[in-house]
Specification:
The complex is a heterodimer of chains A (393) and B (476). With 393 residues, chain A is α/β, with parallel strands linked by helices. Helix content of chain A is 29%, strand content 27%. Classes of the chains: A alpha/beta (393), B alpha/beta (476).
């Protein structure tokens, strides 16, 4: 069946559905296409982080600040008056700690800079830390509390946003594989211009394609005759049996920020521990570039467990119930790719958010809509420009 | 890391038989089981001092004892009980199993890593529960749970019990409980015995099974327990204390829909309700073995005629017993024997012709037992009419307390179209049982295809392990 649309969004992960909803809200006729269903990729393997604490000063922090507020607006919009949006959105706060005095000093330095740009940061002493987290190791000298850090259940969030998108007239084609992206060449500048897509369920004519395929965004870019250097960066998450009230916040080791910022391919891991509203405790976070290999690696699970116990000794007695891996969309400079392709007009990328896609999606969607409709953008998006990589081979 | 020539996982009929047969050919065998004693669920028993009770609780305990003792006395077999495998991986060179076992000196279990080139999986099955309003009330259990309380601890689950569901397993459970003085206030088989009429030949050619059935029938008759056919427990009620007080039994049609107006209440303090068995393929799935959906809808391991699930010139994984398709103890013994001999052949302990001579009769016996197993699956099929027993508030996933209504919402409003979507959108199967109980029911509820059933039966963490146990370095 062939059809036409103002815009086609490829990918029904969190970035795809937030972008699709924002476009529908702006009056576009939008079709979302996914080879599976909502949240079948990285979104379905995520913890639902909506963090401002782990960002250093720069464009990503600006995006994160706006996006964090965007999540609470989105929850009110789609959640039927439920402030949690129906997807467990909660500003439960983050607590960043360090086990060394040096680490604490570096942490306080970062917090001060973040505070200068309006992030709510509260330095906590050992005793205050124990009030926030009664089960935390007494050996931790201190840390920083970020009350704005939030969390949601990302799969449910994506599904509920998709439901709202459809109720506003958007169309979703699940189990639909994009076979080809059609372009025509513009003779004046040697560029290509989007004319539509071909799928295994028919063709869609459209002048606008949004590539929201996360870790797989390079494949879609190539299909359109362009390129993007997005690679999978694997992470494991351990999930405990329900153990309510052991851990109140998202608590993580300051090493995490350094690990996120590293570009190394080999394994890095640092403790990220949090309780969820369903009672389970989630433990991360490992990062390594090993392609799309999803086998369970006991050595990594062991390391994550040991690191989590260093932060919360009580976890030694808590049972591990399941573990799974996901593939973060990694860009070489750790910044998302948000904007129009440098060589293919009408092809817009909204991908490469690495481990922060849930948190950054509302503001990324907002940027896309503002740029597509030629409005003034809420921030300067040039740092996210797809053209920054040049031609990537 | 402990290396063994052959590792057998599971010490029920299939595992014991596999271990003996491989060891008799000269293989060094390590037999691992998570229970306290050999025998698996089928020959679950108490310590030797209580053998009098053990014998009275089993129809054929003697055979179990002799197998158990030959394994324990075999020089080529090392036994490791109370050892729970929690993670496993296979590659072209072999298999690595991560297990928890009681530590040498410390009280907390320690992790042990086992390695082998020839693995035989005989991880058995557990009984299947179907959801109905009240199935989560304390006092409602599966026949297997009632049986293991009795056989493993000498404890009866209640004073006044209803036993219901479908399949031949209801008979030994009812008769052993009746023998221990439990008042059986109702014994209900969902299917009509007429379903055997077209399969009389299979029944008559399995006189052993028939004799066993008659044995249970005699006990039940002596205890004045009559089995009623074509009825099912479709609701359970609790008293103010939340504990079971009564069940509602109704006449059901062959498709399991309820005949309206046939409901009646039976007071009881425990109810054992089971609907056949689900193979435990957790370990097989973690190893990435080929799986398929059996005629009864269960996910099973695919094996060839030598019980090989996966092999190359360096390694092999065999599977035997219920995990290759539910078929009972006799079939499991044959499959286990063939798997053990096939391992010996691959290891060069026996020649091709020795293998063929020894297995000729076994192949025939296996085929015979398979025919009987097939007849059982046809007679005691579980059609999806049970879906009419549930209401929107009935839990389908007890661990995460997800109701059928929440699943309906995930499907209708959120666009879930398979087990994984429903899991992500509603938490079905994310809890303690990891889908062992609810997964198959969920697939039936959704009308899932085979691919969805197989994917949904995967659970990389085979058994829970504490983070403290995991964080320690394994014992060498």
């Amino acid at each position: 069946m062939n059809s036409t649309a103002d815009a086609v969004v490829i990918g029904a992960g969190i970035v795809g559905v937030t972008t699709a909803l924002a476009l529908v809200n702006a009056g576009f006729k939008v079709v979302v296409v996914d080879r599976g269903n909502v949240a079948n990729g990285t979104t379905g393997a995520g913890e639902g982080n909506i963090l401002v604490s782990d960002k250093e000063l720069g464009p990503e922090l600006d995006l994160a600040k706006r996006s964090r507020d965007g999540w609470f607006e989105l929850a009110l919009d789609v959640g039927d008056g439920d402030e949690s949006g129906g997807f467990e959105l909660e500003a439960k706060g983050g607590v960043v700690v360090s086990r060394s005095e040096d680490g604490v000093r570096a942490l306080l330095n970062l917090a001060q800079q973040q505070g200068n740009v309006g992030i709510d940061t509260r330095i906590v002493s050992t005793s205050e830390l124990l009030e926030l987290e009664p089960n935390i190791s007494k050996e931790i000298p201190g840390g920083v509390w970020y009350p704005q850090d939030a969390q949601c259940q990302p799969m449910l969030a994506a599904a509920i946003i998709m439901r709202m998108f459809r109720s506003r007239g958007g169309e979703f084609l699940c189990d639909t594989v994009v076979r080809k992206i059609n372009t025509r060449s513009i003779e004046s500048d040697g560029c290509l211009s989007i004319t539509g897509i071909e799928t295994d369920r028919g063709d869609i004519s459209t002048p606008l394609v949004i590539n929201a395929t996360g870790t797989w965004a390079g494949e879609i870019a190539e299909m359109a005759g362009s390129s993007l250097p997005i690679a999978p960066r694997r992470g494991f998450i351990l999930v405990s049996v329900p153990a309510p009230h052991l851990i109140n916040h998202k608590v993580y080791d300051a090493d995490y920020v350094a690990n996120v910022a590293s570009g190394a391919a080999e394994l890095q891991s640092s403790a990220v521990v949090e309780g969820t509203s369903s009672g389970t405790i989630l433990i991360g976070a490992s990062r390594e570039r090993v392609g799309f290999k999803s086998d369970l690696d006991v050595a990594i699970l062991r390391k994550l467990a040991a690191q989590a116990i260093q932060l919360f000794p009580i976890l030694a007695k808590v049972q591990l119930l399941r573990a799974y891996s996901g593939f973060r969309p990694f860009a070489p400079d750790h910044l998302p790719v948000i904007g129009e392709d440098a060589t293919v007009k009408g092809l817009w990328h909204n991908a490469g958010h690495e481990g922060a896609g849930i948190g950054l999606s509302p503001a990324s969607a907002q940027l896309i809509v503002e740029m597509v409709t030629r409005q003034k953008t809420f921030m300067n998006p040039s740092a996210f420009s797809p053209g920054r990589f040049g031609k990537y081979e | 890391m402990t290396h063994s020539e052959v590792i057998v996982v599971g010490a029920g009929p299939a595992g014991l038989s596999a271990a003996i047969n491989a060891a008799n050919c000269g293989c060094e065998v390590l037999l691992i089981d998570n229970g306290n004693r050999l025998g698996g669920q089928y020959w679950r028993h108490m310590a030797k001092e209580r053998d009098l009770l053990n014998y009275s609780l089993h129809y054929d305990f003697g055979r179990g004892v002799s197998l158990r003792d030959s394994v324990l006395n075999h020089k080529k077999i090392t036994v490791k009980t109370q050892t729970q495998i929690w993670s496993a991986a296979a590659n072209d060179e072999g298999v690595v199993l991560h297990a928890l076992a009681p530590g040498n000196s410390s009280e907390i279990p320690r992790e042990i890593v086992f390695e082998t080139q020839h693995l035989i999986l005989a991880t058995g099955a557990y009984d299947r529960a179907l959801p109905f309003p009240g199935w989560d009330i304390p006092g409602v259990m599966t026949p297997g749970a009632a049986q293991s309380l009795l056989k493993g601890h000498g404890v009866v689950a209640g004073k006044k019990m209803v036993i219901a569901g479908s399949g031949p397993f209801l008979l030994p459970v009812a008769s052993s409980l009746a023998e221990q003085g439990v008042e059986i206030v109702g014994l209900f088989e969902a299917h009509s015995p007429r379903r055997w009429l077209r399969r009389v030949f299979v029944l008559l050619s399995n006189l052993g099974k028939l004799t066993e059935g008659i044995h249970y029938g005699r006990i039940l008759k002596r205890r004045a327990v009559r089995m009623k056919f074509g009825f099912a427990v479709i609701q359970a009620h609790a008293g103010d204390d939340g504990i079971l007080t009564a069940v509602i039994v109704a006449r059901i049609r062959p498709d399991f829909t309820v005949v309206v107006g046939s409901e009646r209440k039976i007071e009881c303090d425990a109810a054992a309700i089971g609907w056949g068995f689900t193979p435990d393929t957790s370990l097989a799935g973690a190893l990435g073995l080929p799986q398929k959906v059996d005629v009864d809808g269960a996910v099973v391991v695919s094996v060839d005629e030598r019980q090989v699930a996966q092999s190359n010139s360096e390694m092999s994984v065999h599977a035997a017993g219920e995990i290759t398709g539910v078929g009972g103890a006799v079939l499991s013994l044959h499959e286990g024997a063939i798997a053990g001999l096939s391992c010996a052949l691959l290891l060069g302990k026996i020649t091709d012709s020795q293998y063929q001579n020894t297995t000729k009769e076994l192949y025939a016996s296996r085929l015979h037992a398979e025919k009987f197993a097939r007849a059982l699956k046809d007679v005691y099929v579980i059609p999806d009419g049970w879906r009419t027993w549930v209401t929107p508030s009935t839990l389908i996933c007890r661990c995460e307390e997800v109701s059928c209504g929440q699943v309906d919402t995930a499907v209708r409003e959120l666009g879930a179209r398979n087990s994984r979507d429903v899991k992500l959108f509603s938490r079905v199967g994310m809890g303690m049982c990891q889908g062992r109980v609810c997964g198959r029911n969920m697939a039936d509820y959704l009308g899932s295809d085979d691919g969805d059933r197989i994917r949904n039966a995967r659970r990389p963490i085979i058994a829970p392990i504490t983070l403290g146990e995991l964080a320690q370095d394994p014992l060498l």
